[in-house]
Amino acid sequence: MAVPACARRGLPLDSGRGGGRVRPRAAMDPASDPILVRETARRRTFAIISHPDAGKTTLTEKLLLYSGLLRTAGMVKNRKGGKLATSDWMSMEQERGISITSSAMQFEYRGCVVNVLDTPGHQDFSADTYRTLTAADCAIMVLDAAKGVETQTRKLFAVCKLRGIPVLTFINKLDLPSRSPLELMAEVEEVLGIQASAINWPIGSGREFVGVAERATRELALFEKTSFGGARRAEMRKVPLDSPEAQAAIPPEQRKQLAEDLEMLEVAGNPFSREAFLGSRVTPVFFGSALTNFGIEPFFDAFVELAPPPSSREVITTAGSESVEPSAPFSAYVFKIQANMNPKHRDQMAFIRICSGRFERDLVVKHVRAGVVLREVRLSRPQTLVARDRNTLDEAFPGDVVGLINAGFAIGDTLAVKGGFEHQPLPQFPPEHFARIEPADLTKRKGFDKGMETLAGEGAVQVLRSYDNPIANPFIAAVGRLQFEVLQYRLKDEWNVETVLSPLPYACSGWLQGDIGQFKPTPGSQVAKDARGRIVVLFPSEWDRQYCLRQNPDFQLLDFA
């Protein structure tokens, strides 16, 4: 049977109008659906993680280029008036040359349907990145060959390790002066605590970087630069390692160094097995340059072979927890909400990760939040997305990321054909920056309130109210200060509301666990409630937080909620 081209232009978007009960359409038993089984096996859903400026978004662009989805790839920064990155669609991202919000795209590559989740690298947006990682079945870790393992990389890798997400490593920027590949491999093992196994090996670096040696096949993948600055696919030819063509392509000194390195890897390097990779015990390492496209094609080819298809997911039931297989009836959860992706559509998009079953247009599902079925809703207008571009979608499968036109969904909600369970809740990080925000022009209060409600629903900031005086104006909280800049920028750009931000003298916080009636706040602290009614305590410093705990030994301050 021919395999249909399932991934048209990116990511499904959908809608829910609904409230009243509607009649579900008849469906085939998922376990006996051969199309579901086949399409699930074709899915590869992954996130790209890195420290800022390691080349994460550029690598994402090259995925689109090599899949045929783009004819020319944009760079993150608009060099010399060139094309901008497709995944960085927000105007502030294009102005600053950074990824501020997670984006999701879908395309077909070598018979697999690839769902790529491009995440912000900046630590101020770590909460958005963490939520996105929950939707991934594996991750690509991008390292700068000159800098190695950096701070944000360590934090994001720790999240992958905690969740058991397999990680492939791509050491980028070999077209620039770089550290020794052996030194970089050793740093990955020492700093991240995982074995590293080189799948290929770079030939030279900087201007002398000409390609990579494939260890398993004993072939050289040689590349030639194009005149398009990396916006077009690089010409690649493969030749046997010991062939005259290989000898002629590599200078004698590089040949000698390559032979020594490959011999050392055979003797002392870590062996690679897919089982160890899927068990997060080893990371396969690849080398290349996302800017020039050197090493990109071999990496992507290996990725679709190594990366896992969707597997079972743990869910919460009234009896505890259990696993839901991809072949089970349809279920998904909301991991991201984004407003105003297209100025022509003043709506919100709720992005869901499909965990089980086959999604079709007009599917009727139960909308579950905190263990309560809120309603039944018909999902009638699914669409695919690449950045802002929307196209209608007819079906989707486990591993796919589907966008729903938001009609009452919230981050962490579960959608399922059958009730009785919900997917694991998505934790929040404790905020470290606090402020009051008001419209500069009070006549624009209505637009301000609408914008704040929308952006808080996205998780861009948290809205807190004083516990002692809940009718007072609320204040905002964020993990990173840059979130406040984004908030003010978007209120101006999307709602035409200038704002005034007044920082508050707090530097850390924690969710209170215990009887609030018995809690004794310490001087300088502030007791507040978040949007879900949970008690959160704010402190001027970490010392004040620890002092408060000593004064209230029967209480805990949680770092996640």
Characterize the structure shown.
- There is one protein chain.
- Helix 11 packs across helix 12.
- An eight-stranded antiparallel β-sheet has the order 29-26-28-27-31-32-30-33. Strands 1-19-18-24-15-16-23 form a seven-stranded antiparallel β-sheet. A seven-stranded mixed β-sheet has the order 3-4-2-5-6-12-7, with helices on both faces.
- It is α+β, with helices and mostly antiparallel strands.
- 24% of the residues lie in helices and 31% in strands.
Strand-helix topology:
Layout: E1 16-18, H1 34-42, E2 43-50, H2 56-67, H3 91-96, E3 103-109, E4 112-118, H4 126-133, E5 138-144, H5 151-163, E6 167-172, H6 181-192, E7 195-198, E8 200-203, E9 211-214, E10 219-224, E11 235-240, H7 244-249, H8 252-268, H9 274-278, E12 282-287, H10 296-306, E13 313-317, E14 320-324, E15 331-339, E16 348-356, E17 359-360, E18 363-369, E19 372-379, E20 383-386, E21 389-392, E22 395-396, E23 401-405, E24 414-416, E25 421-423, E26 433-439, H11 445-458, E27 462-466, E28 475-478, H12 482-495, E29 499-503, E30 508-513, E31 526-529, E32 535-539, H13 542-551, E33 556-558
Parallel strand pairs: 2-4, 2-5, 5-6, 6-12, 7-12
Antiparallel strand pairs: 1-19, 3-4, 8-9, 9-10, 10-11, 13-14, 13-25, 15-16, 15-24, 16-23, 17-22, 18-19, 18-24, 20-21, 26-28, 26-29, 27-28, 27-31, 30-32, 30-33, 31-32
